[in-house]
Design a protein that fits this description.
This protein has 303 residues and is an alpha+beta fold. Helix content is 29%, strand content 20%. The protein is built from 9 helices and 10 strands.
């Protein structure tokens, strides 16, 4: 590994579950198939691989693009997107159904992916479009699917960050003895064509001060997304901690109602961004038993 660039970094994946009927299947795939697959692939250069199940989605949180399944966290020593890591002895198992359960593709695209490319003369206009969508995610389903955004689906948001937080805005010195944390993590990508400097000014001079002033918010941290790793559409990741869901709603919904709609707004209410496209989020606890590199022992079923 001497010729690889040593680049410690962290990543977050916002895993949604678009229907409760999909939850048993998605959970089974994650723990039975995906965890051992992933560990087999990247154990030599990953130091942490954990699943943080998200708390039940609060009222009004859907407009924040709330991930109803989990946040997935990795700590990397080198970039997983280095082309030299593309040669796999055993390919990752990533069936189209997983993308459907997470809302990344539509049922139509999922069924077409299972059937394979449609004949060009099957239905004028339609097969070409479907085949284009299939091609986006079939070259390497494990990685290409995570970067695509097919029509009617939500993009797979995979944010790479510096290993350590870049901005310590509120609550420095907080310890685990200071109480339980309802850690609301959200990532935002400012709309295409908007002035990024003005958008960042809005975030740090209009939004963050409301959190800072609220006693219900105990901690605020922020990092810019490392867009050079995988071309992620997001710009910033913010964590705002609360004691509970009620504190979250008071600050993130009620207090934010005073904000005026900015010129670049995609929606009429805060956070003024398109859910699951320009904002994704999830509220998690400090601790997870799914620290997979340390704790995973296989898909052990209930008796």
């Amino acid at each position: 590994m001497a010729d690889f660039k040593f680049e410690p970094m962290r990543s977050l994946i916002y895993v949604d579950c678009v229907k409760e009927d999909y939850r048993p299947e998605l959970l089974r795939w994650l723990y039975k198939v995906h965890v051992p697959d992933s560990i087999s692939q990247f154990e030599p250069y990953v130091t942490k691989y954990a699943f943080y199940p998200t708390f039940p989605m609060p009222e009004e949180a859907d407009r924040f693009g709330y991930a109803r399944m989990q946040l997935t966290e990795h700590h990397w020593l080198v970039s997983d997107l280095d082309p030299r890591l593309a040669i796999k002895a055993i390919a990752e198992t990533f069936p189209p159904d997983v993308l459907l359960w997470q809302g990344n593709i539509t049922e139509e695209i999922c069924e077409m992916m299972k059937k394979g490319p449609a004949p060009a003369d099957e239905e004028p206009g339609s097969p070409e479009k479907i085949n284009d969508e299939i091609e986006k995610v079939e070259e390497d389903i494990g990685n290409s699917a995570r970067q695509t955004n097919v029509e009617g689906g939500n993009p797979f948001i995979f944010c790479f960050l510096p290993m350590w937080w870049e901005k310590d805005i509120k609550g420095k010195g907080r310890t685990i003895e200071d109480g339980a944390n309802y850690r609301f993590n959200f990532t935002i990508g400012f709309p295409e064509g908007a002035d990024k400097a003005e958008c960042e000014k809005w975030l740090f001079e209009k939004v963050i001060p409301i959190m800072e002033a609220a006693p219900e918010c105990t901690r605020i941290l922020a990092s810019a997304v490392k867009k050079d790793i995988n071309g992620c559409v997001m710009d910033w990741v913010i964590e705002a901690w609360f004691e509970n869901q009620s504190g979250w709603k008071k600050v993130m919904v009620d207090d934010m109602a005073v904000l005026e709609k900015p010129d670049w707004a995609q929606t009429d209410v805060f956070p003024f961004l398109k859910p699951r496209h320009n904002i994704c989020s999830g509220a998690v606890a400090d601790y997870t038993p799914s620290n997979n590199l340390a704790n995973y022992r296989g898909y052990l079923t209930m008796r």
